[in-house]
Amino acid sequence: MPPLGVPSYSQATSPIRRYWDLILHHQFKAHFRGEQLPWKKQALEELCCRILALEVEHDIIMARRNRFWTVFYLQQKMNESEKETPTVEKHSVF
After folding, report:
1. How many CB atoms lie within 10 A of CB 23?
2. Are the CB atoms for 59 and 51 separated by under 8 Å?
3. What is the pLDDT of residue 32?
4. Is the Cβ–Cβ distance between 15 and 25 less than 8 Å?
5. What is the pLDDT of residues 34-81, one digit of tens each?
6. Residue 50 C-alpha from the chain's centroid
7. Which of 2, 19, 24, 40 is deepest in the core (most CB within 10 A)?
8. What is the DSSP letter of 7?
9. CA nearest 47: which of 11, 21, 15?
10. For residue 1, what are the CA distances in angstroms to 4, 7, 11, 12, 67?
């Protein structure tokens, strides 16, 4: 038995945040109103697979974006510190 003591459960947040949550809210509302569910099991499974693939792609893009801007920032800081670092000229005593 899962940790919550039920065979399955779902987590939902504000529908503004994620498309999947919006679908889940529609399913819940229809169920609690005694209406026909907007999506059947097979349609939800197919949709879930597509959404998960998009979320993975989104996560990869965000990680690359964050890495790019981190490197960009660090390069700027390195360039600034090189300009501020006084240069020492070597003079020959002889």
Report:
1. 19
2. no
3. 93
4. yes
5. 999 999 999 999 988 888 888 888 889 989 999 999 999 999 888 887
6. 15
7. 24
8. S
9. 21
10. 8, 6, 18, 21, 40
Whole-model pTM: value is 0.53
**Residue 86 in this model has a pLDDT that exceeds 80:** no
Q: Show the tokens assigned to 77.
A: 């800081």
**What are 16's two structure tokens?**
């503004």
- Here the tokens at position 29 are 């509302």
pLDDT in tens, 7-43: 777 766 654 567 888 888 899 999 999 999 999 999 9
Residue with tokens 């964050």: 66
Q: Which of 11, 31, 38, 54 is nearest to 2 (CA)?
A: 11
